[in-house]
Amino acid sequence: MFEELEIVKLKHDLPEHDMKAGTIGTIVMVHTQPYRAYEVELEDEDAWAVVTLRDEDLLAAPVDEARYDEAA
Known about the structure:
Elements: E1 7-10, E2 24-31, E3 37-43, E4 48-53, E5 58-60, H1 63-66
Antiparallel strand pairs: 1-2, 1-5, 2-3, 3-4
């Protein structure tokens, strides 16, 4: 289970949002009813999306992967 503001990454591609497995995101809201789900803000070089995902869609992002390149 994940918590609000936790940094995560996608386990699989989301072609409908142009997101690839491994894309880093931030949990911006946690839903508990009717089941646990997460609003996740995802961003890569070419796309941005907020999508609703479940535990099986996400992995915890290691701290070194969670940092964004400030020079970009």
